[in-house]
Design brief:
By secondary structure, the chain is of the alpha+beta class. Helix content is 33%, strand content 30%. It is built from eight helices and ten strands. It has helices at 22-32, 51-57, 62-71, 78-81, 95-105, 124-135, 159-165, 194-203, and strands spanning 16-17, 36-41, 44-50, 109-114, 117-123, 141-148, 169-179, 182-190, 207-213, 216-217. The strands form three sheets. Strands 7-8-6-9-10 form a five-stranded antiparallel beta sheet, covered by helices on one side. Strand 1 (16-17), helix 1 (22-32) and strand 2 form a beta-alpha-beta unit. The two termini are 30 Å apart.
């Protein structure tokens, strides 16, 4: 499946009107078990509000409740506590770019905008589910490996090439640095001669840390 935002975003988006009181918005958050929601005004996206934003705006004791009542409703409406402008992304953007943007801006979700209209929302939970879907396709075997990134100890064979040579179908392969001069790899394969593949990985210079079939350790 293509790794674009449109394939993993939630399309049933609950929005909050900017003039809604924080107290009313809080009740809606609790009712729908929301952590964040886009804020709209006149049908257009104007910001994002989180559960934390609302919690900080609500009175914490009797004194604050009285002050809040005396100040009037304008002192506790969503427009005053939301983040604006909202940081958004398009449905045709790559999932990786959405994850990087969330990490950079330290936010847990992005409204998805197409042709000026709100068409969905992509959250950190959606991205985690997407990753798990990619890394756990079908009745496959997960092989965790490690090796030197360079020098004489660098592996001689590519895990993908070795898997194909043993008749395995490669479902996914991720490789990333874990510490100076070392790489960690996650190879998921299906079918073929998996035991021979593990032997070939060892012979080619990869350290096989774990082999798991389904939810149980295979070797």
């Amino acid at each position: 499946q293509a790794m674009f935002v449109r394939h993993f975003m939630s399309v049933d988006v609950i929005v909050v009107e900017a003039h809604t009181s924080c107290r009313e918005a809080w009740r809606g958050f609790q009712s729908h078990k929301l952590r964040r929601a886009p804020v709209v005004e006149g049908g257009k996206l104007v910001g994002m509000v989180t559960e934390g934003d609302l919690a900080r705006a609500l009175p914490r004791n009797v004194g604050e409740l009285e002050a809040d009542t005396e100040a009037g409703s304008d002192a506790a409406v969503v427009a005053r506590v939301m983040s604006s402008p909202a940081i958004s992304i398009g449905p045709g953007e790559h999932l990786e770019d959405a994850a990087r943007l969330m990490l950079k801006r330290k936010i847990g979700g992005l409204p998805v905008i197409e042709a000026g209209a709100l068409v969905g929302i992509i959250t950190e939970s959606d991205i985690i589910r997407a990753f798990l879907r990619m890394s756990a396709m079908g009745a496959s075997v997960r092989i965790t490996i490690e090796a030197a990134a360079e020098g004489p100890e660098r592996p001689r064979g590519s895990p993908i090439e070795l898997a194909l040579q043993q008749g395995c179908s490669v479902q996914s392969f991720f490789c990333y640095p874990v510490r100076a001069g070392r790489w960690m790899g996650l190879l998921r394969v299906q079918g073929g001669a998996c035991e021979l593949l593990v032997q070939e990985l060892w012979s080619s210079g990869w350290t096989v840390l774990e082999v798991v079939s389904g939810s149980r350790r295979a070797a």
